[in-house]
Amino acid sequence: MKGKVNALKKKLLIIEDNRDSLELLIKVLRNQPYHLIEATDGEEGLKKAIGELPDVILMDISLPKMGGYDILKELKKREDCSHITIIAVTAHAMKGERERALEAGFDGYISKPIDVHKLPNQIEYFIKNKKSGKQLDDLESF
Ligand SMILES: [Mg+2]
Prior knowledge:
The chain is α/β, with parallel strands linked by helices. The protein has helices spanning 2-8, 19-29, 42-52, 68-76, 97-104, 119-132, and strands at 10-15, 34-39, 56-60, 85-90, 108-111.
């Protein structure tokens, strides 16, 4: 029975090098229906994405060893990763960063500081929209 319940959980990979940010994300998502996987640098993140084939990735953009845009590019080349909802989570306050992320092919964009109350809904929203094949450019920003 327990195995069956776990099978219904979505696999969510968090790639985040900042310890405090990682702990906050885990704290917020621990009680949600996700099986959480963590990676703390870009290379580890890419390796776990390919090895675990998660349903969702929450990805910091600025990462040691390999940046978020490079990870995204690698995952986009792979047929077996095409189902993954890939969400950028970034502190880049630069104007146009959201547009840049969506243009690069991220399925969602969440800016830091994250809103702990909104986060679960934001994730589900991006998953739903990826499945429906909607263009993110047309979507409202959170
Ligand atoms: Mg970082």
